[in-house]
Specification:
Layout (H helix, E strand, L loop, with lengths): L1 E8 L9 H13 L6 E8 L4 H7 L3 E4 L6 H12 L6 E5 L3 E3 L13 E3 L19 E4 L3 H9 L14 H9 L4 E3 L15 E3 L14 H10 L11
Helix pairs in contact: 4-5
Length: about 230
C-alpha cells in the first residue's frame, strides 16, 4: 500500500513552531513505522528551506504564507496530492509529537478516520471532531475537499477544521466514517493519548503542557496530573 503523509502548517520560530524540534518524532512514529508499506511525504508549509527538504525528502511541496487561512492551507495540501498515485493519505501538522507509533492506532484503511469526537462539542449539535489528524483512503479525497468548501457544512465561523464531519457524512454516509477512539477526547496539546502539540512559546492554559520540555517535567513533578496525556 502507498501511504501519502501530508504535513501542513507552520514550521518556523516566527510563531513558536520549530519543525526541527519535532522532526525526529515524526520520522520515527509516523513515517518509518510502516515496514510493509511505502510512504511518500508532502509538505505545505510557510517556510520551505534546503534543510527541511533534505530531511523529509518530499515528493512535492508548496510554500504558503503565514497568514493563510487554515482552510486555504488544507486546500493547498489537497491540491498537492490530487494527481498522485496513492492508496491512503494521512493529514497532520509539522509541530505534532506522537506519543506512540501511528501504525498502532486503530485505523480502518477502508474508511475516513477521525481520531475522536471533541468532548463537549460533538453531542451538543456542533459535531466537532479532532482537527489535527485525518486518515483516509484516496477515494475520499475529493469528498474531504467538498466538505471543507461547502459553507452549509461549516456553520461555526473560525472552526472549519473541527466541522468536517457533518458535511462528510452527507457525502460518504456514516457507514464509511471511523473514529479511532470511540470515546470523546480533547484536541488540546496533551489532553489525549495520541499526541502533543509543541507550541513551546505559548502560555499554558487548561489543555495541558504546550511543549515537549513541559510534558517531560510534568511527568516527574506531578505524575498524576490531569494534564498528562490519557493512557489506556
Amino acid at each position: 500500500m502507498k501511504i501519502g503523509i501530508v504535513l501542513t502548517g507552520l514550521v518556523s520560530i516566527l510563531r513558536n513552531r520549530d519543525w526541527r524540534r519535532t522532526k525526529d518524532n515524526i520520522k520515527e512514529n509516523l513515517i518509518d513505522c510502516w515496514p510493509t508499506h511505502e510512504t511518500k511525504i508532502y509538505l505545505s508549509t510557510n517556510e520551505i528551506t534546503p534543510e527541511i527538504l533534505e530531511f523529509y525528502k518530499p515528493e512535492k511541496w508548496a510554500e504558503t504564507i503565514v497568514n493563510f487561512q487554515l482552510q486555504r492551507r488544507t486546500l493547498k495540501s489537497i491540491e498537492l496530492i490530487q494527481e498522485e498515485d496513492l492508496d491512503f493519505i494521512i493529514f497532520t501538522r509539522p509541530d505534532i509529537v506522537f506519543l506512540d507509533k501511528v501504525s498502532s492506532f486503530n485505523i480502518d484503511f477502508d474508511k475516513f478516520n477521525f481520531l475522536f469526537r471533541e468532548i463537549h462539542h460533538f453531542y451538543d449539535g456542533r459535531h466537532f471532531t479532532c482537527d489535527n489528524f485525518y486518515a483516509l483512503p484516496f477515494k475520499y479525497l475529493d469528498s474531504f475537499r467538498q466538505a471543507i468548501l461547502d459553507p452549509e457544512n461549516l456553520p461555526f465561523a473560525g472552526h472549519f477544521h473541527n466541522q468536517v464531519y457533518p458535511g462528510l457524512k452527507k457525502l460518504i454516509t456514516d457507514e464509511n466514517i471511523h473514529f479511532i477512539q470511540e470515546e470523546e477526547g480533547y484536541s488540546g496539546p496533551a489532553q489525549n493519548k495520541f499526541y502533543l502539540l509543541d507550541r513551546y512559546g505559548h502560555i499554558d492554559g487548561d489543555l495541558g503542557p504546550t511543549s515537549i520540555e513541559k510534558l517531560e517535567r510534568l511527568k516527574i513533578e506531578d505524575p498524576n496530573s490531569v494534564f498528562l496525556p490519557k493512557r489506556d
